[in-house]
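Q: For a teaching session next week I want to show students how multiple molecules come together into a single three-dimensional assembly. I've collected the sequence lines for a complex. Could you give me the predicted structure tokens for the whole thing so I can convert them for display?
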Amino acid sequence: NAGVMQNPRHLVRRRGQEARLRCSPMKGHSHVYWYRQLPEEGLKFMVYLQKENIIDESGMPKERFSAEFPKEGPSILRIQQVVRGDSAAYFCASSKDRATNTGELFFGEGSRLTVL
Amino acid sequence: GESVGLHLPTLSVQEGDNSIINCAYSNSASDYFIWYKQESGKGPQFIIDIRSNMDKRQGQRVTVLLNKTVKHLSLQIAATQPGDSAVYFCAENRRDNQGGKLIFGQGTELSVKP
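A: Of course. Below is the structure for the complete assembly, covering every listed component.
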């Protein structure tokens, strides 16, 4: 029973390029969450999606960042025109039901983005 | 609550000793708390959780204590082992959010000396 799968694990981009990070939730999970972690900091919530819907995007930067979770296929976090400050680890988590009162978010291993 | 720093707080313990990791949270609307363990290069791993209507919960070798009066949370690890070396994060879930929007603390790096 595979866990949350993220790819790529490591991604290097030059300033101005686009980064696409993919997340396949655990089998049977339809809720996906994206978090960002800067070095030596805790994770910061970005966005919560359910199949084809964005439920909460209050943590997403207003520009350059977008997320989707299509009916078929993985969730995608897209960062356009990357800047050095986007360098971070991006974690995806999934849950079976809406994680309102539960910490049962299962995290992936993360995608580490480095912007040169 | 959230804090930003250049260096993680660290805790160094001898193998076999008990470890206590502390966390302060900021929002009295938080009603659910979780401790995560994050090993180098990996994602956070759920350890134990506690609801705000409780003040103590025990798991295997771990105990979480919640003091709502001073908004303080602690994780106790009994008989700490080298495999416990990791960064530990507390996280809070606020009842006014739509789900899954955990607020993570800064983290504490636990180092276990053999």
